[in-house]
Amino acid sequence: MLGNLSTKLQKILRDLKGEGRISERHVEESMREIRIALLEADVHFKVVKEFVSRVKEKALGQEVLRSLTPGQQVVKIVRDELIELFGRQTVGLGFSKVPPSVILMVGLQGSGKTTTTGKLALWLSQRGHQPLVVSTDVYRPAAIEQLSVIARDIDIPVYVEKGDDPVELAKMALRHARNMGFDVLLLDTAGRLHIDEELMTELERIREEVKATEILMVADAMTGQDAVNSAQEFNQRLDLSGVILTKMDGDARGGAALSIQRVTGKPIKFIGVGEKYDALELFHPDRMANRILGMGDVLSLIEKAEEVVDEDKAEEMLQKLQRDEFTLEDFRNQVRQIRRLGPLEQVLGMLPQVGFLKGLGKIKVGEKQLAHLEAIINSMTWRERTNYKIINASRRKRIASGSGRPVSEVKRLLKQYVQTKKMMKQITKGFRTKGLPKFNFPI
Ligand SMILES: Nc1nc2c(ncn2[C@@H]2O[C@H](COP(=O)(O)OP(=O)(O)OP(=O)(O)O)[C@@H](O)[C@H]2O)c(=O)[nH]1
Ligand SMILES: [Mg+2]
After folding, report:
1. Are 295 and 82 spatial neighbours (Cβ–Cβ below 8 Å)?
2. Strand partners, 280
3. Half-sphere exposure (Cβ direction) of 131: Cα atoms closer than 13 Å
4. Is the CB of 191 under 6 A from ligand 1?
5. What pTM was estimated for this model as a whole?
6. Which residue has a Cα nearest atom 10 of ligand 1?
7. Which of 118, 140, 285, 408 could form an SS bridge with 150, CB 3.0 to 4.6 Å?
8. Which domains are assigned to the chain?
């Protein structure tokens, strides 16, 4: 995420940290580099100027330079200011006292409104809400169908009614939500290529009619300052309650993420990090700053793991490990769980870039490798999976051709499995007295 900017900032700060003593000139020099890095990342020039001058003032003003760890103090100042840029607090969603709460999703064409409506509905239902979704996009023929397909995929009810008046549709959906006891109504709206008067009037009318609790602007992070400009215009007309930045998984440079809160005064509430329906994250300013500075985001990783790892299964696995019954079938389940955490690069990006973990990022265990691992285990018979010792040369050959992988890879996998088994047995010994860890990380 924001890879380029992240790499540059980390390098600048590492150089600074490496110095035993730093002078004003050092700080000046680093600030110049940070300024360039931010501008290159398409951060709004006023935001950059303000950011750099604040960091500089703090770094030079306090007792920083004379302290024992000046470099580290400057890093801390940069981190604090980044958090400030992102809005400091995790904001989350607001709900109305009398349900249903209404969330109005607005934004330019193709920014990700419809997809994000689905993601957010899923996010809410996973947290005990009963959301209903509806599309008021009567202009594009396939738009309503698109939301219905998404809703079906994620098993969320969708309101569909004939009609060509978006405002009427919104009102009917709200009535339906109220009557049927849904506590959140998510309204997906039409997008336009540019902001125009007609669209704004329509959105204003919908907002008035349904008394929207949240008006969230869905903005494409890949479009940088354009996203910031349109957010500003939407905000002026509609008084947004927040922003959702989508496509943060792509090679967005960071301009939108680092400028939008400062420029519009409205918080980023969520970020979209992929095309899958669960690729939506609550936005935490501090964790984002940590990720950018390579300090990791272990908290998000643990939360993610808790979402996808079944506690009972984890307990069962632990017992199996202790009894030395950890089979290749279990190994495959573990691989599947890792894959469910998300693309591996993203998972690794959440780990702090310190010490031995730094090397981990370079190890070639990408998505592909995990997929191959699974394919190989899939090609084994049940007996082989439960007793790896029977896998002789001819069986290895059969498994290789069945999975379309070379024999050497089958061998390597078996070796990895035996090593993992051994290592896990060692580790789990330690848990016996302390109980079950929150989650276990297999390989
Ligand atoms: N990689 C990635 N793709 C995303 C993300 N969010 C949305 N997309 C993709 O962006 C494209 C457009 O998404 P839509 O949800 O149709 O956008 P929209 O704003 O509803 O578009 P209109 O209704 O035409 O205005 C789709 O291909 C989505 O899969 C994200 O966070 N990451
Ligand atoms: Mg749409």
Report:
1. no
2. 272
3. 25
4. yes
5. 0.75
6. 112
7. 118
8. 3-85 (1.20.120.140), 101-295 (3.40.50.300), 301-434 (1.10.260.30)
Q: How far apart are CA 1 and CA 254, in angstroms?
A: 9
pLDDT of residue 429: 62
**Where is 280: in which H helix or E strand?**
strand 280-282
Which position has the token pair 């703090």?
Answer: 58
Ligand 2 center–CA 113 separation, angstroms:
5
- What crossing angle do the helices spanning 24-40 and 45-61 adopt, rounded to 10°? 160
Return the half-sphere exposure (C-beta side, CA atoms, 13 A cut-off) of residue 312: 0
Average pLDDT, consecutive stretches of 10 residues, N- to C-terminus, the chain (443 residues): 86 79 84 93 94 91 71 85 92 93 96 97 96 94 93 96 93 96 96 85 95 96 92 95 94 88 95 94 92 74 69 72 79 77 66 46 62 91 92 95 94 85 67 42 37
SS3 content of the chain, % helix, strand, coil (to 5): 60, 10, 30
143 CA from centroid of ligand 2 (Å): 6
The angle, 0 to 180 degrees and rounded to 10, between the axes of the packed helices 328-340 and 407-434 is 80
SS3 at position 219: strand
Both tokens assigned to 390: 């029977």
| DSSP code at position 72 | H
Residue with tokens 């939506």: 280
Element (H, E) at 158: strand 158-159
Cα(first)–Cα(last) distance of the chain, in Å? 24
Q: What are phi and psi of 169, to 5 degrees?
A: -55, -45
CB 117 within 8 A of CB 133: yes
Pick the ligand that lies closest to the CA of residue 218. Answer: 1
Could you tell which of 146, 154, 246 is best to mutate to test the pocket of ligand 1, judged by most ligand atoms within 8 Å of the CB?
246
Structure tokens at 38: 């931010």
424, β-bridge pairs: none
